[in-house]
Specification:
Blueprint: H1 13-39, H2 41-48, H3 53-87, H4 95-106, E1 110-113, E2 119-122, H5 124-172, H6 181-202, E3 208-210, E4 220-222, H7 225-282, E5 283-284, H8 296-311, H9 314-342, H10 344-365, H11 372-385, E6 390-391, H12 392-409
Parallel strand pairs: 5-6
Antiparallel strand pairs: 1-2, 3-4
Length: about 425
């Protein structure tokens, strides 16, 4: 819509003709804009919709403005037609005609129905400015409502269709409200989307975010905060259901692996208990940790998992399998650590035996195998290490004495230190 030039002093014929031409162009532009507003899809939707909230309030005010706008336009049309008639009386307008035209074109000559008052008086220029203001405000509301209606309901419908497919799939794997958190989430998303669509249809302007600093009609964007949140929630549920589907596909293989891990843990614990008896019989004066039995709760949970699989309760099987897999690995690690702790004395004895024989071989290479002192100390250490029960502390000291004697015989080398900080 156009904006008139500022009014000037008394006009001559050329000024009048130019002003009438300009006002005629503005009249055409205003009429075109008003007809476009009248036919705008958003306006037709607003007229036919059952509105609520902020949209209902603002549309009521906008309808009053649009009615007022058409009244202003009719008054503007009548004033322009009157001015044209005066100019058309004669080819060369008289001074009286020019004076009258100057008053019509530049003065406050147009009386229009008032908004809250009986009537208002405007110049043609001020009337155009007023119509521009009313038009921009009305168009802004119509465009905003239409933008929300064009964007959100369709997206909500697409998400709702995806939600229905997800619910069907969820039910097929036992993910139902009250039985699985994802089922409860689906119910909540369904309720939220249903309410969101109703609110968007009846109160679209409640979901409009105006653009900061923008004066253009419809400057802004639809507020998709709630929609985006529910779309993310549905995606989380889909991932949860995908995980349940994956469980359904590989449940048997995972159960077999679980049984294998728990069986290895049981065998390792059995080996540790056997080793503990051997250590107690062969090693004296040492503490051997007690080996606990396999936890029966894991076997019970494994049986429960197998039952869930037979019954197709995949939503229950999924978290149970994840928990069991971690617990089974922990149990196998515990069994291995128990075996290591139990057999530690035997490892110490084996290390002492190896060290004693290594020094004997070294002594023999230097031709000292028959040295009486070395033979005596070797035999003493060997008897301790190969007798049962073996006192590791005494045997270690015997090996140390043999090492010291061997070092002296081999040239006075510094005596080796024991394992605690005195053996090399």
């Amino acid at each position: 819509m156009g904006v008139t030039d500022p009014a000037g002093p008394v006009m001559d014929r050329d000024e009048v003709d130019r002003a009438l031409a300009r006002l005629g162009q503005e009249h055409e532009a205003i009429e075109t804009s008003l007809l476009a507003l009248q036919d705008h899809a958003g306006r037709r939707l607003l007229e036919g919709a059952k509105l609520t909230g902020v949209t209902q309030e603002r549309w009521q005010a906008a309808e009053e403005r649009i009615t007022l706008l058409w009244g202003y336009f009719d008054a503007y049309t009548a004033a322009l037609r009157g001015a044209r008639e005066i100019r058309g009386r004669r080819r060369w307008s008289s001074r009286e005609d020019l004076a009258e035209l100057t008053g019509l074109l530049r003065g406050e000559s147009v009386t229009v129905p008032g908004h809250g008052r009986l009537s208002e008086t405007y110049s043609l220029t001020a009337l155009v400015d007023r119509m521009n203001e009313l038009y921009a405000t009305s168009l802004d509301l119509v465009v905003a409502a239409d933008a929300v209606w064009s964007a959100l309901p369709a997206r909500i419908d697409l998400l709702a269709a995806e939600l229905r497919r997800t619910r069907t799939l969820a039910h097929s794997v036992g993910v139902r409200p009250g039985e699985h958190p994802a089922g409860d989430d689906l119910e909540r998303i369904t309720r939220t989307l249903t309410g969101l669509r109703e609110d968007v249809v009846s109160d679209p302007l409640a979901f409009w975010v105006p653009a900061e600093g923008s004066s253009a009609p419809g400057g802004g964007r639809p507020d998709t905060t709630v929609y985006d949140r529910e779309a993310r929630a549905l995606e989380d549920v889909r991932r949860e259901i995908d995980a349940v589907l994956t469980v359904r596909q590989d449940a048997e293989a995972r159960l077999i692996r679980l049984r294998d891990v728990l069986s290895r843990a049981d065998r390792t614990l059995a080996e540790a208990r056997t080793a503990r008896g051997e250590v107690l019989a062969k090693i004296a004066a040492t503490e051997v940790p007690v080996v606990s039995g396999p936890p029966t709760v894991l076997q019970e949970q494994l049986a429960t998992a197998a039952e869930y699989r037979r019954q197709g309760q995949w939503h229950r099987l999924s978290p149970l399998l994840e928990s069991l897999e971690q617990k089974a690995e922990d149990e196998l690690l515990r069994a291995r650590e128990s075996l290591t702790a139990v057999t530690a004395p035997l490892a110490v004895r084996a290390e002492l035996r190896g060290r004693l024989d290594a020094y004997k071989a070294k002594v023999a290479r230097h031709g000292l195998a028959e040295d009486p002192l070395l033979v005596e100390r070797y035999d003493a250490a060997r008897r301790m290490l190969w007798s049962a029960p073996c006192d590791l502390r005494v045997a270690e000291q015997a090996v140390l004495r043999y090492q010291q004697a061997a070092a002296e015989q081999l040239g006075g080398a510094s005596a080796p230190q024991d394992r605690e900080g005195g053996r090399s």
